[in-house]
Amino acid sequence: MLWNEQSLLIKAINGNEKAFETIMKNYLNDIYNYISFKISKKEDIEDLIQEVMLGAYQSIHKFEKHSSIKTWLMSITRRKIADYYRQKYSKSNLDTVPISDNEQFVKEENISKLSKMSILEAIENLPQEEKDLVHLVFIQQLSYKEIEEVMDIPIGTIKSRMHHIKTKLKNLFEDDWRTLHD
Amino acid sequence: MINNCDQIKDMIIPYINKKLSDKEKLIFLNHLVNCKECLKEYALILKIQKALQTSIKEMPKEIKIHAFDKIKHNQIFQSDNMGQDITNLFTKKIPTPMTSIEVVTYLMSKISDSVKLSIKNI
């Protein structure tokens, strides 16, 4: 953490709202990208961002347990997204909710048939937990250690899921793969 | 010494995310030059990363300006400076006359006797 951010953080923990907002503005884009990666309705995205900010403000005294402000905020964002899905789909568990708001759920076994899909489409059709992992690795650029904090799963599980995702995507692009080999 | 393909494959993402030290980068690149298997893996992951990077968006201004609204709304009922908070509430968005009365009625019901007295004297 930068010295400047550290001094602002101390002020924010002591209740200084301006200091809190100054810090948060550096991360709003990351939070926005995480939420909009999974949710497409503008009103819901806006509401969730406000929920994340409120959650962060109310729990800032707990920050010291996290390695960085970013991992802390990603954890809060992930919980708020889970709350959103829980509320929206009531008794459904997360495995059965649609991949995104406006798209139909595509079963894993069908992914292999979608050979001409783009990478983004293929990732869009991954199960929620795998989609989360892809976002945190490639867009938020978190290390596996940081992702362990955010997702609360062991590094071994993260590595094995990544391996599984890579195998799935590798099979999709078999033609490109052969071209590269030749 | 890192020589094992599994260890090198674990270094691909940190390499792409620029998180390897110079020494680790050297080991990683030297291995890649001599290993088709790891090079293929690197090409796939790079392809995924480049595709995902194109999906990164700038947060729209209209969402940004309201990001802290719930905090401010939450604080109105906890602030000591109740008079200023009520002023802020009405200068943010101008409600219809009927909505204003409803809001004031609700706020007044939350204010303690001592604060009620200070507003009466304004």
Can you describe what's shown?
The complex is a heterodimer of chains A (182) and B (122). Chain A is mainly alpha-helical. The radius of gyration of chain A is 18 Å and the shape is globular. Chain B has 122 residues and is mainly alpha-helical. In chain B, helix 1 packs parallel to helix 3 and helix 2 crosses helix 3. Chain B is rod-shaped, with a radius of gyration of 29 Å. The model of chain B has no long low-confidence stretch (mean pLDDT 76). Chains A and B meet through helix 2, helix 3, helix 4, helix 7 and helix 8 of A and helix 1, helix 3 and helix 5 of B.
| SS field, number of helical segments of chain A | 11
Topology of chain A as a string of helices (H) and strands (E): HHHHHHHHHHH
Strand content of chain B: under 5%
**In terms of per-residue confidence, which ranges of chain B show pLDDT below 50 for 5 or more consecutive residues?**
none
How far apart are the first and last residues' alpha carbons of chain A, in Å? 46 Å
Secondary structure: helix percent of chain A: 55-70%
Oligomeric state: heterodimer
What is the count of helical runs of chain B? 8
Question: In sequence order, what are the helices and strands of chain B, one letter per element?
Answer: HHHHHHHH
Give the percentage of residues in beta strands of chain A: under 5%
How many DSSP-defined strands of chain B?
A: 0
Considering residues with a beta carbon less than 8 A from a beta carbon on another chain, report the largest interface and each chain's count.
A-B, 39 and 33 residues
Which spans of chain A have pLDDT < 50 for at least 5 consecutive residues? Answer: 97-116
The percent of residues in helical segments of chain B reads over 70%
What would you report as the Rg of chain A, rounded to the nearest angstrom? 18 Å
Number of β-strand runs of chain A? 0
Task: Sketch the major β-sheet of chain B.
Answer: none
Cα end-to-end separation of chain B: 77 Å
Mean pLDDT of chain A: 81
